[in-house]
Amino acid sequence: MQTITCDACKKKVDNPFTDRTFFHVGQHNICETCKVNLDEQIRSTVRTKDPFDYQWYSKLIMDNLAKSVSKGK
Ligand SMILES: [Zn+2]
User: Fold this and answer.
1) Domain containing 59: what range?
2) What is the pLDDT of residues 22-50, one digit of tens each?
């Protein structure tokens, strides 16, 4: 059985399914729970951004993910 470890919460995901049970974000692999948390964290910030800028958005995701990874949750 294939497993993958989430870089943020360090939980193992069994039989990972890309974009369904785990996600590639930059050079990190994160589980569904962490992806949902990440989306939630950036949602309010994204809403206030006008005009929308994809590079800014990518950087925002990376910054928030880096924070989660260093916190270990
Ligand atoms: Zn996780």
Assistant:
1) 3-71
2) 999 988 999 999 999 999 999 999 999 99
Question: 38: CA distance to ligand 1 center in Å?
Answer: 10
For CA atoms 30, 32, 38, 39, give the dihedral sign: positive
Cα of 2 from ligand 1 centre, angstroms: 16
CA distance 62 to 43: 14
Instruction: Report the number of distinct structural domains present in the chain.
Output: 1
d(CA 73, CA 68): 6
